[in-house]
Amino acid sequence: MSRYRGPRLRICRRLGDLPGLTRKTSKKQAPAGEHGQRSRKPSEYAVRLEEKQKLRFNYGLSERQLLRCIKAAKKVQGSTGLVLLQILEMRLDNTLFRLGMAPTIPAARQLVNHGHILVNSKNLSICSYQCKPGDNIEVKNKNGSKMLVERYLNFPGLANIPNHLELNKAQMIGKVNGIIEREWVALQLNELLVVEYYSRK
Fold first, then answer.
1. Which helix H or strand E contains 199, and what residues bound it?
2. Strands, E, within 65-198: which ranges?
3. Model pTM score
4. Residue 193 in contact with residue 45, Cβ under 8 Å?
5. Which domains occur in the chain, in start order?
6. How many whole angstroms separate alpha carbon 111 and alpha carbon 78?
7. How far apart are the C-alpha atoms of 61 and 55, rounded to whole Å?
8. Which of 85, 101, 141, 178 is buried most, with the most CB atoms less than 10 Å from its CB?
9. How far is CA 74 from each of CA 62, 71, 79, 153, 195, rounded to the nearest angstrom?
10. In a structure prediction context, what are the per-residue pLDDT tens digits for the chain, which is 201 residues long?
11. Rounded CA gap, 107 and 93, in Å?
């Protein structure tokens, strides 16, 4: 299945606050659709599916990409849920979003795809690139690129920059200093339920 291009507020009403997907907030409280008004106790499968969908829509991944990340996380020693979140948080598009260089993850992905971003002084157009400690992320030295990111920096998507990242606003250079810790992940999520969802397959 390809990337989701439909109404984003509908997804937020169903799954809760997804800062990476959109900055808009809905005035309506109930989930979208005629069945959203019913208050039934969800099954265990439905709870796990919802957590998985939160992860998918927030980071803008296809089912295949998320499954690949799960398999990579299982190979690493330690908590699979935590490693999975670290893999997703260290993606280039998410790192740009967390630095405040883009208001949402789809906007960050567009910046990367259109060639506005340099990583370690090299042009990079792969959104899923895994940022490593010591990486320098900068905006291309072109007027259009600088103006666009400057506008985004004035109205960042999230209030705080996580402690593993560092930003020089004047030069528009971000630096990755380490791996993100669990408390700095902006998404309200139980990652163990996502791992359980995939362990059934």
1. helix 191-199
2. 117-119, 122-123, 136-139, 165-168, 173-176
3. 0.83
4. no
5. 8-87+187-199 (1.10.1050.10), 91-178 (3.10.290.10)
6. 33
7. 8
8. 101
9. 19, 5, 8, 36, 9
10. 467 777 777 777 777 777 777 766 767 766 666 665 666 787 888 889 888 988 888 888 888 999 999 999 999 888 888 999 999 989 999 898 888 888 888 888 888 998 888 898 888 888 889 999 988 998 888 877 888 888 888 776 666 788 888 888 888 888 998 888 888 887 888 888 888 888 876
11. 8
Both tokens of residue 76? 């690493």
Three-state SS for 122-158 is: EECCCCCCECCCCCEEEECCCHHHHHHHHHHHHCCCC
Nearest by Cα to 173 from 105, 115, 95, 107: 95
